[in-house]
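Re: weekly structure request thread

Next one in the queue (106 aa):
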Amino acid sequence: MTIQTIAVRRLELGSFVRPGSETADGHPRVEPVLGYLVRHPEGLLLFDTGLGAGDPGTEAHYRPRRRPLPQALAAAGVTPDEVSVVVNCHLHFDHCGGNPLLPGVG
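Done, posted below.
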């Protein structure tokens, strides 16, 4: 039996401020924006790609702080060209913003 190694690394892709109007206690809080790089024998899978640009109202409402995807990948020793597959948990601007940097990646 061959054992294959799969490794998962968390990527810090920025943060945004969730206003008190959207929290249970009424206080604003900083929310991290994370992605995950999965090293698999068949290639690299990137789960979520970080913050994209929102419209001016969204930008003012959430005050995002972005870490560029290439920079986050470089910290993990990877370039965007090495990513084989992208998966987004959903298509809000804080989960799929880096997708345009990975054209043609399935």
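The two ends are 30 Å apart (CA to CA). The mean pLDDT is 94.
Next request, please.
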